[in-house]
Amino acid sequence: MEDQITVINNLLDIDSGGIRLIGIYGMGGIGKTTFANIIFNQLCPRFGKNYSFLEDVREMAKAKGSLVKLQRKLLSDISHSGLDLNIDNLDRGITMIGQRICNKNMLIVLDDVDEDNQIQKLIEVNSLCSSTRILVTIRDKSVLKIKGFKYKILCYEMEGLNKKDALQLFSRHVFYDSSPPTNYYTLSEGIVSTTGGLPLALTAIGSLIFGEKEETIWEEMLEKLRETPHRDVLGKLRISYDALELDQQHIFFDVACFFISWKKADLIYQWKYCGFKA
Known about the structure:
Rossmann fold, five-stranded parallel β-sheet, 13 helices
């Protein structure tokens, strides 16, 4: 991850003034949270005790009152006392956060955000102190169109692992080694090729096939994966699909099933004619 870390550190530019928000975006399971954790742990010493990592914002937002819990965690992280934990609603929480962070250079990570208002409910954007840095992991970078946020917003796209690194990650989970044994090399390459370099898929499949010696089992696994992704991966990917509007889901299916290699301009007219926001 060294090259990617260098890119993010350049975007954050800790030694410069001004407030920056960096959005790390990409598909589910590609390693955004892992990556943000690494950056966060490296940078914490630069911010004294003024830092907080808020996990699973999307999931927490589904449950009533859970965003308040994240507000409490943020306040607890930066105040180091239990006095600020008595928050009973979002408005009270955001007011108290604004009072606490207005004179502190902060490092804040918001993990797995799927709506811009979640950022506004967790951070008082108008009270941020100069040199504050915010990392947000997201699936869709349009989430970063934050109303009233007047500071610099930069984006970084996470990409899948290349063939060499993907094979190495898979091998570590299956063989506890950096490469497969000779007699499993071709089968390993075949399985890795079905994952698109997605770390979640490589980890899940590697753990599943760990300890299997029979080549027929490997061959069956390869055939199965060519037809259908592993269920753990499918569940992660489904989150992005479920977040689409109904007409977007329809367009998604059209592209995936019928219009491969078609020209986009031709299809847009068809979808518009059907009443979709193409």
